[in-house]
Amino acid sequence: MVKKYIVLILFVIVFVSIFLWWQQYQEHKSLMKHLALHQPIEINEIESVHSWVKLREKKEVSKQDVERIVRWFNTFPAESIREKGDFYDNPTHQAGIIIILNSGYEVAIYYVEGMVDVSRTDVKNGMEISYHFLEDAPELDNYFIELFKQRSS
Q: CA of 85: how far to CAs of 8, 13, 82, 130, 153, in Å?
């Protein structure tokens, strides 16, 4: 009788262990996918950066602003993004920052009504990927708001 309980307890322990391992594995797999998408940008890899506001021309971004934008972008948590479909030519984007890298690849940060979208070709061997920031990025929001003010005057 005692043997049955020991076998049952061992079975439950093994089952719970496998279940917990599987949950951890799925979380790790999800995090690694996000990390693969939201790669940091290296300042020394940047060739040029331009910003634009809807119906206005593109303008080059100052070196100081480039450093701030890259710092804000790089510190955004990778687990707080969601991969999206193609929105590169989305007419609702109100503004954007286009970062051209020395390699010829591109990272584009788009702004629409307080939301930040990213489209980039510098990961996944040049294939364009797109993702959305799930949380607020207040520094980028403020940058775009200032950009609107500057370009509307």
A: 48, 42, 10, 6, 34
- Of 61, 77, 79, 69, nearest to 139 (Cα)? 69
Q: What percent of the chain has pLDDT over 90?
A: 26
Residues in a beta bridge with 53: 95
Q: Are 88 and 130 in contact (CB under 8 A)?
A: yes
Count CB atoms within 10 A of the CB of residue 137: 20
Classify residue 147 by burial, with Cβ atoms within 10 Å: 0-12, 13-18, 19+.
buried
**pTM assigned to the model:** 0.71
Q: How far apart are CA 98 and CA 119, in angstroms?
A: 9
Q: Please write the tens of the pLDDT for every residue from 13-39.
A: 888 888 777 777 666 555 445 446 788
- What is the DSSP secondary structure assignment for residue 102, as one 8-state letter? T
Residues 120 and 129: their CA atoms lie apart, in Å, by 6
